[in-house]
Amino acid sequence: MSAVATRPTTAPVLPMLARQSYAEFIKLFRVPAFSATSIVLPSMFYAFIGLGQASEPLFPGSHVTFGQYFLASMALYGVANVMVLGFGISLANERGQKQDLLMKSTPLPAPIYFAAKALSALAIALIAIVVLGLFAAVAAHVQLTTGQWGTLGLRAMLCSIPFIGLGFALGYVAGPNSAPAVTNLIYLPTAFASGLFFPLRLLPHFLQNVAPYLPLYRAAQLVWDSVGARTEGGSISTDWLYMAAYAVGFFLLAFWAYRRDQGKKFN
Amino acid sequence: MTDPAVQLTNTSKRYGDVEALRDVSLSIEPGEVVAMLGPNGAGKTTSISLMLGVRNPSSGGARLFGMDPKNLKARSRVGVMLQESGVPGMLRVSEIVDLFRSYYPAPLPTSEAIAMAGLEEKAHSLVKDLSGGQHQRLYLALAVCGNPDALFLDEPTVGMDVEGRRRFLEEVGELAAKGRTVVLTTHYLEEADQLAQRVIVIDHGTVIADASPAAIKARVAGKRITFTTAAPPEDSQLAGLPLQSRVVEDHRVRLLTNEPEGVLRELFRRGVPMQDLEVSGADLEEAFIAMTHREVHP
Q1: What residues of chain A lie within 8 A of the CB of B88, using their CB?
Q2: pTM, entire model
């Protein structure tokens, strides 16, 4: 068969990545439990907590409104929520259904599979913050400069990257049944402890001491900074360094969890 | 010289203390249609997993088209249906076929792959809404959509109805006729008889036979004798006969033997009362059961 010799031996990678990313995206998007919580929840929290006091100053004498501050908080909550909960839970479910066995037998390279998952989650995260931004602008009349909108969006998206690693790790460690509980148990308390829902000064003293070491707290400083409302004196370069370190740590953890899972199943 | 499609060389696989495959060596040439038969836990799925590089051998080697089975060039020439593997439920049939096509260098058109699996009417359904048999046909569509040189089908017709199975076997037969290598494991041994030129019988992790279906039938328990008795026969009435297997279900007796004349002569001599006596050729399933020395418990 001379046709065998002349045809390419493997499929081109970029169309594969595009197809895989699209498939991962619609897979997530079509699960209402995921898309609704990811896309609607941040705006809903904003409506409950932020709407009534949106135009009041963050604290007496502040030029930043609570509406602006809480917009940044919920943007971060929203993107990290997609990565940790949605991502971790869907990965655990796919493992539970042995979809990884099927993928393992195809010529799909593992890095493409993971890149596609990350890209699809980033797309959902982007939709979540666009919806939140529109809601805040229209319903709460939050005003930011174009530069602030852009910086806030970019920083929220960049800050979601370490949480992709955390989502991967949880998805490979947790079983399909325990994943929702485990991820919520980790994510919700850290979101509170990082001051995303209530200012840190209202939280118990020991949490105030722990908070500065939490990844969401560092990310929160970055997004608050973009609307001029950071709560501590440090610099954003320190925050970025922390984020980079968390990213490396979480991705190493994810890699370890992945290898452990593969070793168990496919050795 | 072309490389074999599949080669296992002194391959063993253990899971903890369990030796699932013991020192198996076999080679499958391009274009061969091979059925792997064996009871549950015999090592069929393990063999396929090693051939595909889904699992690593504990010792010995596995090659796919002369390459490491994990090599994407080798994987790109292979389509696979694996037992128990899951598919994303929230994709439509045509979407997931499109997705899998993108993994392969020279795929078939989406509609052709779907038509081969007989899923035209379900092309726009979500995968989660498919029935068990339709799921199996979707796996076939995913296995063939890359236009692969070799197909690995692990228990492919589980969950299919009679019509679905007939159509499935026809499709696989056509692929084989086009020169594809087909490796299939099955419990439905008539499938092996219909499709395969070569049957590899595996039991307890070793190859106990490797021949054409006809040769296997000739080698073991060629004839089946069945009859009914008024009362369940005594053990002594059937003792000492040249039998490969005997099954007594209440009043129904089923014997497998290569010497039907001798067995019948002895049964008449012993005065065993026989009604509805039939002598026929044993099918592959019976040949196989006799070969693995397992009693049938219906």
Answers
A1: 23, 27, 94, 99
A2: 0.83
